[in-house]
Specification:
6% helix; Immunoglobulin-like; 4-stranded mixed beta sheet; mainly beta; 1 helix; 119 residues
Amino acid sequence: MGLSTHVLDTMHGTPAAGMAVSLYTTGGKDGAAILVKNLVLNADGRNPDGLLYDTQSLQQGTYRLVFEVAAYFRARGVELPEPPFLNEVSLDFGIADLSQHYHVPLLVSPWSYSTYRGS
């Protein structure tokens, strides 16, 4: 049923519009991460093209989403220390059952984040 993500900015209480995100596969040779795509989240904090992977393209394996947190908050005018507490948030996860939808939401502020497997 595919793979999706959604990011909410808990500092401002809004979707994280404009945050850059990268998607990688991580099951390659020697565990190397292979870039699949870069994207910038839309006004709703989601991929503007919809699913990151549709049902036909998604494969069993391991993946990584990298969210550019510090750059996003700086662009929103938040003054961050150097180095910032959170620069990038990297989430590694596995896809086991291709008949299910995998949704990877991120709730984030400059100082904390939370994620879970959504539906």
